[in-house]
Write a structure and sequence with these properties.
With about 190 residues, the chain is mainly alpha-helical. About 45% of the residues lie in helices and about 10% in strands.
Length: about 190
């Protein structure tokens, strides 16, 4: 399950070191709503817009929040039975990164409408969501779990990941140990 807050950046996707100013000139609320509309027009379902902006009750980010230090955006949704992820951190505002993703999906929809739909499926292969490397996901926890929940989840997962167990390996155990260490530092 992908979390909308905090930002769930897809593993394996490099980050932009020096975000640039854009000329989109769009409010966050408009960019957010238009992105969700484009996903629906594409036939996408179950969208999750992941940012470092706190969430409203409906699970969408607030529009009037100050810019977080990490302005990256990732949107996850299902398209034709596959989990997709589009992400952007090239621009210096969350709204501009949302707008960039919206424009990308709009362009892909155009390709489909203009009769070269086989190109869309080829393009989408690059956006298939990779398994999450989030420490929360590694331990099978929701963000915000407390220290005791982290330790219990770690012990349960270690039973199957340990290299002395059938199906376990040193790599699985190292990943599990790293996730536990990160989360224990976060929860204090």
């Amino acid at each position: 399950m992908t979390e909308a807050f905090p930002l769930a950046w897809p593993s394996g996707k490099p980050r932009t070191r020096n975000p640039q100013r854009s000329r989109f000139d769009v409010s966050f609320a408009t960019a957010r709503d238009c992105l969700l509309h484009e996903i629906r027009l594409l036939g996408g379902t179950l969208p999750v817009l992941s940012t470092n902006i706190p969430l409203r009750r409906d699970g969408l980010p607030y529009a009037n929040q100050p810019q977080p230090s990490d302005r990256g955006v990732a949107v996850y949704f299902t398209h034709k039975g596959q989990q997709m992820c589009f992400c952007c951190d090239r621009w210096d505002s969350v709204a501009d990164n949302v707008q960039a993703i919206r424009k990308t999906i709009e362009a892909l929809r155009g390709i489909e409408r203009w009769g070269t739909g086989d190109m869309v499926q080829q393009a989408f292969t690059g956006f298939v969501a990779l398994p999450s490397n989030s420490p929360w996901d590694v331990l099978g926890l929701k963000a915000g779990a407390n220290r005791s929940e982290v330790e219990v989840a770690y012990r349960e997962k270690a039973k199957s990941c340990h290299p002395d167990r059938p199906g376990g390996s040193h790599e699985q155990m190292a990943r599990l140990n790293a996730a536990r260490d990160v989360l224990l530092r976060r929860v204090g």
